[in-house]
């Protein structure tokens, strides 16, 4: 939607058949649309860590931004602060592991891009929400073991397409991974830095449980 109000109107429209537990406006206002003990309809067809149809097992937060279709832009500091406070409250009420703080683009990489490459995941992790490994500044070019890369992505939780589904499907998944973990380069190419970051995220996931 082009505005926060338009998004809220749609999320509150029974005919739209979409909803979210929370909406965070650009000015930091937080709207609670669905109680946390009820299912909200924001994820759709989705997958994470072996589970499908994630609406029934997650809390959905929509963060107002025009998005890639209507003029994607950075998230204001006041909005990020509101997201952090909201998430800290949710985590105090629910035993959600850091590896399960995910983007819509993580769980539905072929359909969703939000919150996108401008969302400040490193800052959020510093507030105790989610993960962000200490990635190296530079990575030397080298060959990539695609089988290992696929295994690392699967271990993180991603819906890795079968080899037989073709290069395009795997590139779509890599773009989703890069959008979250390597936002400076979103090209779907399995290069050395993408592979290294996947391994580092995988190891962080293993260490945190």
TrEMBL record:
Signal peptide (UniProt feature, chain positions): none
MF annotations from Gene Ontology: N-acetylmuramoyl-L-alanine amidase activity
Any single GO BP term: peptidoglycan catabolic process
Gene3D superfamilies per UniProt: Peptidoglycan recognition protein-like, PGBD-like superfamily/PGBD
Pfam families: Amidase_2
Protein name per UniProt: N-acetylmuramoyl-L-alanine amidase
Reaction equations catalysed: Hydrolyzes the link between N-acetylmuramoyl residues and L-amino acid residues in certain cell-wall glycopeptides
Similarity comment text for this entry: Belongs to the N-acetylmuramoyl-L-alanine amidase 2 family.
Keyword annotations of the record: Cell wall biogenesis/degradation, Hydrolase
EC id: 3.5.1.28
GO cellular-component term (any): outer membrane
Source organism per UniProt: Acidisoma silvae
Domain N-acetylmuramoyl-L-alanine amidase: residue ranges: 1-116
Enzyme's top EC category: hydrolase
């Amino acid at each position: 939607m082009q505005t926060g109000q338009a998004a809220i109107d749609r999320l509150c429209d029974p005919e739209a058949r979409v909803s979210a537990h929370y909406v965070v406006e650009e000015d930091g206002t937080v709207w609670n649309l669905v109680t946390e003990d009820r299912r909200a309809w924001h994820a759709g067809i989705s997958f994470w860590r072996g589970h499908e149809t994630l609406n029934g097992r997650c809390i959905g937060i929509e963060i107002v931004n025009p998005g890639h279709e209507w003029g994607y832009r950075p998230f204001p500091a006041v909005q990020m602060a509101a997201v952090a406070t909201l998430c800290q409250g949710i985590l105090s009420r629910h035993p959600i592991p850091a590896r399960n703080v995910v983007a819509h683009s993580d769980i539905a990489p072929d359909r969703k891009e939000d919150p996108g490459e401008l969302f400040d995941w490193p800052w959020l992790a510093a507030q105790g929400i989610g993960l962000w490994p200490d990635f190296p500044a530079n990575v030397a070019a080298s060959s990539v073991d695609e089988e290992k890369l696929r295994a690392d992505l699967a271990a993180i939780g991603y819906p890795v397409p079968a080899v037989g589904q073709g290069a395009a499907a795997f590139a779509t998944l890599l773009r989703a991974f890069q959008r979250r973990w390597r936002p400076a380069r979103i090209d779907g190419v399995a290069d050395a830095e993408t592979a290294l970051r996947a391994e580092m995220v995988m190891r962080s996931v293993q260490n945190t449980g």
